[in-house]
Write a structure and sequence with these properties.
Layout lengths: L1 H4 L5 E3 L7 H31 L6 H18 L2 H7 L6 E3 H34 L4 H4 L2 H26 L17 H5 L7 H36 L4 H27 L5 H25 L2 H20 L1
Antiparallel strand pairs: 1-2
Helix pairs in contact: 2-3, 2-4, 2-11, 2-12, 3-5, 3-7, 3-11, 5-7, 5-9, 5-10, 7-9, 9-10, 10-11
Length: 312
Amino acid sequence: MDQINGSVVTEFVLLGLAHSLEMQFFLFFFFSLFYVGIILGNVFIVFTVFCDPHLHSPMYILLANLSLIDLGLSSTTVPRMISDLFSDYKIISFPNCMIQMFFIHVMGGVEMVLLIAMAYDRYTAICKPLHYLTIMNPKMCVILVVIAWVIGVIHAVSQFVFAVNLPFCGPNNVGSFYCDFPRVIKLACMDTYQLEFVVTANSGFISMATFFFLIASYIYILVTVRQHSSNDLSKAFFTLSAHITVVVLFFAPCMFLYVWPFPIKSLDTFFSIVDFVVTPVLNPTIYTLRNKDMKVAMRKLGRRVISSKDMT
């Protein structure tokens, strides 16, 4: 890869999250606990949807895919964050840095489209209940998932092809605990103003536009429900509140990281941790605590696992 872009720089220096030993141990416990929660929570949701025939509907299939993406997004950064806490030299090789950036944006792009698909699913279920099974059939669900992955890959490749060919011959301090396009391209030995604008438009403005589109769609659903029956408004709001919470948790950090014109390092680190650590562990909790069918199915699966262990 170094021969492809003609770089002198073969590795990048990452930012340390803590300097004192006490803070290092605290962050090690915090990140490890959350990462275990991310793995267990999201994997349990995937297995629950897969094993329970009652959950083989578009809503839960999309939720299972969202859980897989949350797990993948977190795994691009969190394991390295944990391993780097007690390392004196936080170094990442050029190829690994490029790979990390690529998969971060693949997962982020896929999740963005999945959230749109889930909003469309809820719109169809609430506003067109009689046509729901016709519109959101299994074929449509598969198409939406495939589209999400295609757009995610295109989103990442459209930035990756520029970054991988940039000449890096001087500074190599990324200024963050992970590699990302806005930080890495600034280290290139050339004027990157136009490329920075492309990255901002690709990740920042798209995130902002998608966020406001989703919020507007949820408001439209609630207004439509209220016009038909005010009694169903509270039920619809309760159903959509989980989706709205997930949308805010995902898009708020993205908009700050890619649109904010004067990034503050401490806030930048905070929002990055929210995106990679906090949101992926909260999503399973939000969806399971607010969904009766998921809670029943997870209890059934838990009892089956326990009973199988007792038999052995």
